[in-house]
């Protein structure tokens, strides 16, 4: 049920955010410590600052409230420097950047891979690890995050 509510919220707010030059990345709707959390992750080309979060919150809060969606806490924020990559457009946008891939099952005895995102297709993600190209089947990938060197 939480996933369907999150999808409903995405449907309700994505256009209004887009009109303000803000990209909706993800909506998270889940119970935490007995409270209903509603997290909205956003981005824009210039980056996300406090002002961007304030604009987004003001733009979406009334819409969500008018739809009678129950929540205790609303958070609007950037996904951070180690953001999840989920969509094909994420892979295109972050091509050439360092990523960390976790797989559902071991591939050559390994379940975590860190390298430079080279390319993606419907079937595989290609990354460069220590100068070598590696193809990882997308059907065994559980998570992909940016993994910047700090």
From TrEMBL:
Residues in coiled coil: none
An annotated GO cellular component: cytosol
Record localization: Cytoplasm
SUPFAM superfamilies documented for this protein: YhbC-like, C-terminal domain, YhbC-like, N-terminal domain
Assigned keywords, A-Z: Cytoplasm, Ribosome biogenesis
Occurrences of domain Ribosome maturation factor RimP N-terminal (ranges): 12-82
GO biological process: ribosomal small subunit assembly; translation
The Ribosome maturation factor RimP C-terminal domain, residue ranges: 85-149
Highest taxon in the source lineage: Bacteria
The family this protein is said to belong to: Belongs to the RimP family.
Record function comment: Required for maturation of 30S ribosomal subunits.
HAMAP family per record: RimP (MF_01077)
Protein name as catalogued: Ribosome maturation factor RimP
Gene: rimP
